[in-house]
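Person: Show me a sequence?

Helper:
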Amino acid sequence: MDTERVYKAALYLRLSKDDTDIDGSIKKESNSIGSQRDLLKAYIKKHNDMEISGIYTDDGYSGASFGDRPEFQRMLSDIYARKVDCVIVKDLSRFGRDYIEAGRFIQKTFPAFNVRFIAVTDNYDSLYADRADSSLVLPVKNFVNDSYCRDISVKVRSCQQAKRLEGQCISAFAAYGYMKDPDNKNHLVIDKYAAGIVKKIFRWKMEGMSLLAVADRLDSLGILPPAEYKKMAGLKYQSGFKAAKTGKWSAVSVKRILTDRVYTGDMVQGKREKISYKMKKRIVKPENEWVCVENTHEAVISKMDFDIVQELLMYDGRSSAGTGTANFFCGVLFCADCGVPMVKRTNKYKGRQKVFYICQTKNQSRGCTRHSIPEETLKNIVLKEIVSFTDLMASYSDVLDFVKQMDLDYSRAVGYDAQVCALTSEYNRYYSLKSGLLSDLKDGLVDREEFEEFNRIYENKCRELEKAIESQKKLVENLLHNGTLAKSRLEKFRETAQIGELTRELLVTMVKKIYVHEGKKVDIQFRFANEMEKLGMLSQMAGAYAPGQGVV
C-alpha cells in the first residue's frame, strides 16, 4: 500500500423524493442531505490520506436509475478526467438501489479507473475489502436496496391507483382552465380566466373554425398558451417539449383541450404508466384501462357540447380559403348511398356564384352518383325541419313534470316502449337460432365449421342486442327518475333554435347527421330524437297527450 498517496475524494449525496424528511420550512435542500454532508466531512477529517475534490448532490432523485442523476453524471465525468480517484457515500443505498448497475460501477467501472469506493455506515472500503466482502456481502446489500426500491414503487403505485379510483387528481398540475383547490390539492376548482378561454375554443370549433384557425385567433388576441400561462402564474411548470422564446398556440394544443373530458367534470387518469420502476419512460395505455370517475369537479363544458365537438373532430375538414372555417355542413352532411361525407363545390359563371354539395366518392371518380344539392336549398330544408322539431319539443316541454307527478312504474314503462319490445323480439329470434345450432349439428344439417361460424355470428348479434336493450331501458329510467337533466337539455335546444336563421352553431347543436339522396331528398337525424320518442311514449302512457306526428 502506498502510504504517501492522498486520494482526491468525491463526496456523493443523494435523497429521493420518496424518503425526504423536509420539515416544511423553506430550504434549498433537505435536512437529510445536510446530515450526509456532515457525516462524510467528519469521515474525511479522520483520514489524512484524503482531501475533498468535490461534493456532488442529487436531491430529489430516485436511486433506481443512475442515468437520470445530473450530479452523478458530473462525478463520472470527473472520474474519467482523472480529477477524482475516490468516491465516498453514506451507505450503499445512497449510491443506488439498482443492484445490477450499482455492482457494475463498484466492481468493474471504479476498479478500471483505479477509483477507491467507500460506504461509511456499511463499513465497506474497496481498498481493504476481501473477496467475501466484494463477492458476497456487497451484492447481497445491493440486492436488498433494490428490493426496497421495488417495494416502495409498488406501494406508491397502489396508493396512486386508490386515489384515481376515488376521483382524486394526482397530477402535478391542474389542466388548463382549472387550478388545485387551496384546501385540497387533489381537487380541482375553476380558474375563471382560463376556463373562459376554454369555452371560447369549444364555441369556435362548433362554429366551424379549424384547429389551426382557432390557434391563430388565440395568438392574435395575445392569449398565452397553457404552458406559458402556468409559468406566468408562478408555477414551476416543465414539459418534455422545447419551447420557443415566445409561446404560441398550435393545432395540437387546441385539439388536446377539445378532447379532454376533464372539462365535463369527469376525472380521467392513468392514461400512461412507467415500464418499470427503474425507468422513467412511459407507455400509453389502451383507453379501456383508463380510470374515469364522473362528476368529481365543476364542469366548464356541458357533456352534450363535448360530445358534439368529438363528432365534429372526426370530420375536421380543411378551412375554406381566407375564412379560417370549414364548409358550413362539414361533419354533418353525408351521401345516403355510400355514407361518405359530401364535399363543397363552387361554380362561377358570368359574375354569379353557385355553391353546392356532391358525393365525395363520385367527386373522386370512385363510383356512386352525384347526389348534388345547392347549399341554399339545403339550408332552407334544414331550417324548416328544425322549426318543426322545436315545435314538437314545445309540445313535450311539460311532459317530464307531468310524468314525475304520475309516478309511472318503470317496469310497466319499459314494457310499453316500442323500441325495447322490437329489440327484445329480435334478441329472442337470434337466441333461438343459436340454441338450435347444436341440434342442427347432431342432425347433420351443418358441419363443425359451419356450426362454429354461425354460433359466432349469433353470439355477437345477441351481445349487440343486449347492449342496445340496456341502453334503451336506461334512457327510460333516466327520463323517469332524472327528468330534470333531460328537461334542461330540451330547454337548451329550444333556446338555441329561436335564432331566426340557420347558423353553424344551431346546425351542429340540433342536427347529428344529414343524408342526401338523389333528387335532393334529405333525411335528418336530430340530436335528442331518441329521448323525444321516449317522451312521446310516456305521454301516451300517462294519457296526457295525443300520439302526435312523430319525430322527423
